[in-house]
Amino acid sequence: MSHHHKVAIVTGASQGLGAGIARAFRERGYRVVGTSRSIQTSNDPDYLTVAGDIGDPATARKVVDLALTRFGRIDTLVNNAGIFVASAFTDYIQQQYDEVLATNVAGFYHMTRQVIPAMLEQGGGHIVQITTTLVDHANSQVPSVLASLSKGGLAAATRSLAIEYATRNIRVNAVSPGIIKTPMHAPESHAALAAFHPMKRLGEVDDVAQAVLYLEDAGFVTGEILHVDGGQVAGA
């Protein structure tokens, strides 16, 4: 099948990694459905945007229904939407816990449950989670238990789903970034943040997007957690 007939859904697509991933799929010729709370209407007939809270199951139903109505199939889901809050464990407040779990975990759960039946009906598909290297390489300077709790859960779920659907032609993988140069990091913080990586620089949005596209093409790869972190997971 030509890329021009394939369809990818990208969550958290209004800025940063999500916007870059959505753009990379469009440049490859995919039709794309992007969703986030604040996403703007697209003038591109092959890029459908859907505003909504990914933690709400109604949003997942709406995104998948519109994707199938508009484009007729769903080949790839990128569960990118996420909230990151660095804090000492006992300083987290209930609202932060609720928001992180709703977006990072419930958003993944609802979207993935909605797309799998469509993928099974069409004969296969690919699901990719965006996690974080902090799951595998905790850092005392960046206390982030909620990230480990939520994104670590996604890493484990990635492997479990990969095995569950391996014989039904649905591959499931994840990309685990280090610190990426996105709008969430002020330019004046870049030098200090770069020091967390052995390569001593921040990653670029395109580094993550290209990793997603690699996994998209890698038909014999499933259950993989691909680290894009400048060597962070390997050690200091």
Description:
The chain has 236 residues and is an alpha/beta fold. The protein has a single domain (3-226), classed as Rossmann fold (3-Layer(aba) Sandwich), CATH 3.40.50.720. The chain has helices at 16-27, 57-71, 94-122, 145-164, 190-194, 205-217, and strands spanning 7-11, 31-36, 47-51, 76-79, 125-130, 170-177, 225-228. A seven-stranded parallel β-sheet has the order 3-2-1-4-5-6-7, sandwiched between helices. Helix 1 crosses helix 6 (205-217), helix 2 runs parallel beside helix 3 and helix 3 (94-122) packs parallel to helix 4 (145-164). The radius of gyration is 17 Å and the shape is globular. The N and C termini lie far apart (43 Å). The relative contact order is 0.14. The mean pLDDT is 94.
Topology:
Blueprint: E1 7-11, H1 16-27, E2 31-36, E3 47-51, H2 57-71, E4 76-79, H3 94-122, E5 125-130, H4 145-164, E6 170-177, H5 190-194, H6 205-217, E7 225-228
Parallel strand pairs: 1-2, 1-4, 2-3, 4-5, 5-6, 6-7
Helix pairs in contact: 1-6, 2-3, 3-4
Could you give a quick summary of the protein structure above?
By secondary structure, this protein is an alpha/beta fold. Helices cover 40% and strands 16% of the residues. Helix 1 (16-27) links the parallel strand 1 (7-11) and strand 2.
Report the structural category.
Answer: alpha/beta
Largest pleated sheet: 7 strands, parallel
Poorly predicted regions: none
Number of strands: 7
What spatial form do the alpha-carbon principal axes imply? globular
Radius of gyration: 17 Å
- What's the end-to-end separation, in Å? 43 Å
Predict the CATH topology.
Answer: Rossmann fold
Helix percentage range = 25-40%
Total separate domains = 1
Q: What's the CATH C level? A: Alpha Beta
Number of helices: 6
Q: Write the H/E string, N to C.
A: EHEEHEHEHEHHE
Give the CATH superfamily.
NAD(P)-binding Rossmann-like Domain
The CATH architecture term is 3-Layer(aba) Sandwich
Strand proportion, as a percent range, falls in 15-25%
Strand order of the largest sheet: 3-2-1-4-5-6-7
